[in-house]
Amino acid sequence: MHDATHIISTAEELARLRAALSAAGDVAYDWDLTTDTIHWSGDVCRALGIPHGDQRAAFAALVSQEDLAAHSNFLTRLQSGESQFECEYRLQLPERGESWVHDRASAEFDESGKAVRQIGILRFMDSDLSRAGRREHLANFDPLTGHFNRARLREALDHSLNFTKRYEVNGAYLLVGVDKLTMVNQALGHEAADAVLLAIGDRMDRCLRASDVIGRVGGDRFGAVLSNVPEADIEAATDKILDAVRGTPINTPEGPVYATVSIGAVPFPGAINTSQDVMMRADAALQKAKQQGRDCTSMYTFSAEQKEHHKSCIVIAEQVQRALREKRLRFAYQPIVDSVTREIKLHECLLRIVQPDGQIVVAGQFMPVVEDLGMIRSVDRTVLERAVDELKLYPDAHMAINVSGLTTTDRSWMRSAIAMLRGRPDIAERMVIEITETAGLEDLEACCRFVSTLRDLGCEIALDDFGAGYTSFRHLKQLAVNKVKIDGSFVRKIGENPENLVFIRTLIDLARTFGLETVAECVETEEEADLLLNEGIHYMQGYAFGKPDLTAPWTAIGSQPELNGFGILESRETPEETADAEETEEGVLPGMAYPAPA
Question: What is the DSSP letter of 124?
Answer without folding.
Answer: E
